[in-house]
Amino acid sequence: MQKELINTGKGMKSALLFHDPGQIDLLTSLLSTTAQGESPTVVAMGADVEFVLEKRSIPFYSARDLRRTGHVERLVLAEKLAHESFEDPLFNFFSHKNIHIGKIYSVALQTYLLDLIYFTDIVASLVEDHPELERVTVLPLTIEVPETGRLLAGLEARVVEIAAGLVCKQRNIEFFVEKGALSEKKFRVRVVLDSFRWKMFWWKRRMFGVALSLLNICVTTLRPRKKIRILGSDIWRNIAPLMDKLPEGELVLMDRLESFSVGLRLIWKHRMQFMHIDQFVSRGMHRLAVSRDREFRDEWERIRFKNHLINKTSFRGYSLTPVLQEAFERIISTGGIKSVEMIEGAHAIMRYLRPDVVLVRASASGQPHFGILCEVARLLSIPSLEVQHGIFYFGKGSYSNRRSVEYIAEYGPVLRESFKRIGYRDDQLFDVGSPRFDKFARIPDSEKIDVQDSEFVIACIMPGIARAFWTDHYEAFDFLQDIATAVLGVPNAKIILSMRGGADNEAFFREAIQRAFVNVNYRVAHNESLVDIFVQSDAIVSCHSTSVLEALISGRPTVYDAILPMHAVLGKDIGSDLDRYAQEGALAIAYNVEQLTHELLTLATSPEKRRSLVEGAKTFMSHNYSFDGKSSERLADVVRTLAEKHAQLK
């Protein structure tokens, strides 16, 4: 950061919290119209907005050192509030057809609360470090937030405003949501445009649904039904390897946009249909949901002040009751009616399709339909199956410990033990590996394992942004700076940076890379296959447990970057226990920059070390995982087994 732009905050009387790069024009407009000497101190709430402020030459006070609460502490508090509150018998009313709706929404609530606690921590530190502070201002949202599928999206979008209001009210500090930066006329125009875009989206969605219904009719009329029918809520690239090995199977996908990824040839081959729960929600179901919603609201009013956690929990001395009441109100009212419709719709779609297996991407998820599909399938004696897509964190505060799915196709013996710790039986677990990883097992061994070459190519899997859980923008920038420092210590090194940030954070990552990798030989790989990247690489560095597995399968010497706090926790977690991998010679782990530099330098200069890690990884993986390139065949056998079990229960 440019030191001359960082404000010390000395004598701060008025603070403006700046947290969204999209608000920069509103901010500059506000600052330009503020009388000299009355401008508030701009508090930058992340490295992404600090980059933007620097480019506009706007001085700011960094929130970097205002983060005083650790990741695990936030996770534990959010888990307690989200899950234990709904486990209170007072909430037994919040159910439909023996499905507890509160438990379905608890992961979404925990996710929101993590963000809320993160920003409450920052604002609490700000006001405590600056007792002279008299006024705190935030800017308004720049867009309308449609809540399609994300019940708490509106609260998540306003989380900085909510956190700041909570702290300021309890400290008797004036709190203000600035509206003057955008004229009333322009604001109304923006609202109208957002409303128009939403209506257009609704009509496009409806017409798209009609087109897919016609496609479904054509496929099912002209193609005979196959032996096994799968109802799947997953993306096509995850399911495709399974369907290739299950010729007697047909697929009904609930994510209708995946039809573009599949293509007509494969739709025809696999007798695929595309349906959504909403299509099966009748007017009668809607009336029932409205009636149940009234019951839920009445019961909520009766018990809202009786739950201890909601009404007695504080964080850093600030009562969380007001924000918890608001979140639970949203879940009970809006979530109640949506859930009853989803439960009724899920019953209807399963009665209509009569699937043999329900396949879901993630049963512990902020998206409620995953849990509802599993629970309805259980009521109808239909097996539900989740295919493991990553190593989960099973430690303190994890929502991975609460899963709705009946069966899990996991990675192998080492993960089987982790799932048994959270309540699964051996007969509910299948050592499959992962069809997604089969392609990595086919990568040829590096030709440079035993060669000392002039250029040493390192592939680095960059972190994503999961601000309150894994990695915020400050930590992502620190990660890149640490990698750059380590690579500078390795002669003739070149690094390939595999970007995982997505479109929302692409601008931030590109700016962060330019700042961090000065004098480093690098290139950015965006939307490139990891297989292609690994083929070009001599070693892999990653902070993602899943890509660590992919690297080990591919036969590349691998370093797990555990420098950031939560990545260090994952390295020692019972679900991954990456320290054990290192002890058995499968990979190297770095808990600081010096260790990372040492490990990369050793790999670059020692063919013996590279060979040792690769051989150690092969041995370790063969004993603990089912990654032999045949996971798709095993998964197909699992589906056949579950379909046969379902047939016996009919």
Please report which band the strand proportion falls in: under 5%, 5-15%, 15-25%, 25-35%, 35-45% or over 45%: 5-15%
Q: Based on DSSP secondary structure assignment, what is the total number of beta strands?
A: 22
**Helical residue percent band:** 40-55%
Let me know the average pLDDT: 89
The gross shape turns out to be globular
Largest sheet: 7 strands, parallel
CA-CA gap between termini: 65 Å
Secondary structure category: alpha/beta
Strand order of the largest sheet: 10-9-8-13-14-15-16
By DSSP (H or I, 4+ residues per run), the number of helices equals: 25
Please tell me how large the radius of gyration is: 26 Å
Stretches where pLDDT is under 50 for at least 5 consecutive residues are none
Summarize the entry for a quick read.
The chain has 650 residues and is α/β, with parallel strands linked by helices. The protein has 25 helices and 22 strands. The radius of gyration is 26 Å and the shape is globular.
